[in-house]
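Input for the complex:
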Amino acid sequence: MSAPAPPMHSAAAREIAEALGLTLGRANLEIFAETLLELARANGNILAVTSDSRGSGKLGPFGKELPRQIVEVGIAEQNLVGIAAGLASAGKKVFAVSPACFLTARSLEQVKNDVAYSDQPVCLVGISAGVSYGALGSTHHSIHDFAVLRAINNLAVVAPADNHEAAAAVRHAARAQTPLYLRFGKSALYDLPGRGAPFVHGAARVLRDGADLAFIATGETVIHSLLAAEYLARTEGLQCRVLSVPFVKPLDEGAVLAAARECGAVVTAEEHMVHGGLGEACAALVLRAGVSCRFRTAAFPDEYTVTGSQADIFRHYGLTMEGLAQTALTLAQSSAARTA
Amino acid sequence: MRQRPADRELAEKSLRYRRSVLKWIKHAGAGHTGGSLSCVDILNVLYNRILNVAPDTFGDPMRDRYVQSKGHSVEALFVVLADQGFYPEAELETLCRYQSHFVGHPTRKVPGVEQNTGALGHGLSVAVGMALAAKLDGAPYRVFTLLGDGELAEGSNWEAAMSGAHYNLDNLTAIVDCNTLQITGRTHEVMNNEPLDEKFAAFGWAVRRVDGHDFTALTEALEKPLEPGKPSVVIAMTRKGRGVSFMEDVGKWHHGVPDDVEYAKAITEIDEQLSAFGEEVPA
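Predicted:
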């Protein structure tokens, strides 16, 4: 049950998406479930482990078709991750599926010790991530997950930006010999350009080139960054680069540094708290490399998070096309003023 | 099926294990003395009579699994794994030293260790996962885990207990090293978890309480599942610091390291017992 949600994208943003030839796809969560089912049909060693979360994880069809490949643990996230580690240790390819808010907080010690430290190649799947459950309050938000998981050795942190990246991430995880965390939202997403591009561990994708400013974004904020880039091209004549960064960790340092060097101004965007996420990862990298660039982080501030739909929350904190374009424009103008 | 060593042989092994546990803790200047000594006889029976685990077959998917959930009693495990031939015992010279894999809790960097533990309340869930994998594959191997009685205050154990019974994991045996002491004091005073038998039974487990220093009783409890269709829990009544008169059932030896006088006294006690076996006492 959820309240009627306002559209994520404004009329102006939808018009730009259409002009760019983008079509609205589906929720990454659905793509995850379908891809996993397809892989599991062909590989009986693949298991989904759920904590009363098969419905939220869109795994109902999986459970019906492959009942021997789904393990239910009940509402017990610590046990979910511990059991997943034990199954993986015994040779199973395990996808441990639970709402991201619980998976990355309630069972954080199991993630750290049983999976990452013990090097059990579990794929942790955080469903309804970020503020997908926006109206349910902070108990149900996962805007801390990048920060806590980045601080754990031997765990890749992945936030796909569209259906293509989502499907590729699931296939990648199925092959992986090391632990991963995948994060999926439940809103329909536009398909981004460059479908069919290879999905490489730790690699970012340049969705649009430009040298006036770079948007470096991950997950469900990437589309808003792309639309903002087009909006700024139309209204201000700015040529903005857009980088989709599915791997918050390991970070594509080359792509990030190239963007910072070549554009001189960077706006990062993420569905996460400002602390410890993609923005801070990029800022630290740029600083360490001695690259001088103007920098802004679009993320949720360290405050009692506003509630509402995911769209409401994105708009409130400037993560939609309009907000990101405004942040970028201010930054670009300040850069221009400085160099004039 | 390998030859089962007799009780007398196990008794001698336990003395040697205890001697080594003390030696390496003294050498390292750190360790969980009391709990390592309380579980020595359990590990002795497991590795010498029950588990089909050996260095040359450790990669065999059909091997039995042992997860030491009470990871802090690692010195006992390290000594027993050395005796099993996973590595020369002399490698324990590096226990707790810079860059050694022999750290204060088990890690998979040490040959023979299945899972990294040390934070309490983790091993039972992992063991449930391993046992479930065996059931899904129709594989015959068994899974064992060693829990501390104080550890049972961690709620995650009871999530795991529920799931072990839900999935009818009769290939899973949990052993509680019930030495009735934890770092703060008596377990029943810190956080009472008795009656453990009734708690596990209510969760759907087959339960047996045994003397955790009685090789025959331990063997009978561990050699096969206690009851078809149910996971087994063996509540092994032990004494912390077992085998050294002044350490037995004394809380301060939880992670106490003996000084030179205490160490000499402890080793003398053990060596006197070893000499009764007519064996040469190790250097």
